Amino acid sequence: xxxxxxxxxxxxxxxxxxxxxxxxxxxxxxxxxxxxxxxxxxxxxxxxxxxxxxxxxxxxxxxxxxxxxxxxxxxxxxxxxxxxxxxxxxxxxxxxxxxxxxxxxxxxxxxxxxxxxxxxxxxxxxxxxxxxxxxxxxxxxxxxxxxxxxxxxxxxxxxxxxxxxxxxxxxxxxxxxxxxxxxxxxxxxxxxxxxxxxxxxxxxxxxxxxxxxxxxxxxxxxxxxxxxxxxxxxxxxxxxxxxxxxxxxxxxxxxxxxxxxxxxxxxxxxxxxxxxxxxxxxxxxxxxxxxxxxxxxxxxxxxxxxxxxxxxxxxxxxxxxxxxxxxxxxxxxxxxxxxxxxxxxxxxxxxxxxxxxxxxxxxxxxxxxxxxxxxxxxxxxxxxxxxxxxxxxxxxxxxxxxxxxxxxxxxxxxxxxxxxxxxxxxxxx
Length: 429
Known about the structure:
With 429 residues, this protein is mainly alpha-helical. It has helices at 2-9, 12-37, 41-59, 77-87, 92-108, 112-118, 121-139, 156-179, 185-198, 230-262, 271-285, 297-305, 312-326, 336-352, 354-379, 381-402, 407-428, and strands at 70-72, 293-295. 71% of the residues lie in helices and 1% in strands.
């Protein structure tokens, strides 16, 4: 542990600068995810601060990745919103608590390797594309919604806002494409500055942090939960927690694969150690009504390209967000259209992930991933992914039966293939 501290202190200047940039970028992104999740922005930001601290402390004795930055997960935003609608905000701490328990089991027995083998990567990309479409459509109205609606839809205020949004969006994409491999924070900083300056010239809808009280209590179901069929409700929550935990784990594994590629020192990422930080942060956040977390790729890539070398950067990221929590009025200088740009772009990137499926996995994979995205968008995350897994299984069984294979032969072939892939995965880890 002492050696780890000494190693981190060697890069403190680089980590401090990177953490500051990442913290500034994480604020509007986290606010957008909170809105999508139907969670208070203040609670979401506190979750990010807590997850950053946990991520740093666990890195001292169990190294997962080295430059990843934890935060609330965009990919789980619609799922959390559904949880709020289905179980009520008062029961979300208990749901997050159950999710953490599921992840403890996954971490303890290293089950993430099995999850990845059972759920093809291209189906995960399809799932994320469906979520990305939800996010993009949710925040698209932010690009043209004015403070006061008038009789005529096309009015001066709306035309001015659309103009600002369009120019800012084009500039954001240009800067991101140009500097994403060097310093992706530049694009976020630029549109945030433009947004703040535009507030001095236009009357625009702005972001606010609700004055939600912060309290710590044991995450138990709300008493009203037992007035109905509590057994069925608990069963549904356990099933939903398993789905949340699985998606959280899959996203973390995918993020680690990308983080390993951009690590400045080319260090190997140990996914199961990263899961340790996730479940500790999720377990802790359930005591104050927080959200699920993981090392998101947007924040992690910003952190890496901004110069971070160790997890010490997480503490500086947390410090920036903590400063905003002490002075929440600072967020009112950021207009909603700026947040709309960031979140529509985030959703678009998730949809664009289908391109890698087409490039690396072929026609069947892109077809099934597209169907998965549509089903996730129309039916929900759990239902969409489950139906696609069922369809994927039935297609393979049908092909095998067409080739005159018996059910026993099909099972033996699947088992042999699965064990071979498992051995390869264990060898790589």
